[in-house]
User: Fold this.
Amino acid sequence: MTSSLRGTAFKLALSTARRVPYVRRVPSSIRFPLQRDGVDPVARLATTRERGEVVRLASLLGTRVWLVTGYDAARAVLADSASFANDVRDIIGRRRDLALGLFATAAATPSALAAMRAAAQVPGLPESRGKTYVLVHGSWGGGWQWASVAERLRAQGHRVFTPTQTGLGERKHLLSRDITIDTFVEDIVNVLEAEDLRDVVLVGHSFGGIPITGAAHRAPERIRHLVYLDALIVQGGRSAFDGLPAEIVAARRKAAQEGGNGIALPLPPVEGIRLNAGVPAPLAEWLHRHFTPHPIGAYETPLKLANPVGNGRPRTYVYCTTPPYAATEASRRWARGREGWNWVELAAGHAALTTAPDEVAGLLAGFG
Assistant:
């Protein structure tokens, strides 16, 4: 980012803190200085839609500023080439802070505009174009697994959140014997509530099918469609281990005791990843380097449900056929042909979100 952009962001932060108007020389149609009248700036924007639409809350140089623009004047706002678009894309889904500023520069690039339009919705303002997705990873994984799919969905104008479950990925420092499947469900519900998400296409891959089922029980009014991507499904009162073949359960329990201190499932071997997920050896090695031990409590504790799986929300099972994943066979049998369920087959392996992101993103874009 250029020094002039840094300077503008800094001045905006100061003007917000002091509630003093600051307007850079930009077209009058997109000027919206703060006033000294004490009115909530979000409320002001909600009643001043013709002046601009809040399309992104970005994190710049450690400060928080609203990026304000009208689509008709968007080419006069937010530039600095594709690198800025990537910066914007990286902060999609960050927590909202209340600081209002006007960040204006030269003409935006198409990639920057695409990133802007994938913006988080602000209550009281017009709905952003596109759908909202929450993508939940499986065992040993993290939100990082969805990066390629999320990038493709955002490029189409959708909003995408990829939370990481407690104790995994960048949250591995929270690994504990106290983590249960309730913890994982709470992780997802917290995202839905904290970001005030509605009409969500909620996707669970592999083990992620269980927490999305729990989230549908807790917050059905926020969910537009449930998608089980080669995922585990269990009924209320049953655990993940109850939904797996007996030989897999025995092997994982043994591994947890011998290599996970009874707290976590240690990483599967590279060769196991290659064969079970249907990926080439280099990709299996890459996944193995990024995987982290999975909390055993999330496998052992029962899912709490008061209603049938899906809680009445539209739901689809996506079967990854090449090769079939043995651990989800019982879940596939249960979902296929069941009333109220859609069935889709995808010619990819269990790690389709990594090996076939174009196909997965294209499939998900059609839901809802």
User: Anything to note?
Assistant: Residues 91 and 149 are 16 Å apart (CA to CA).
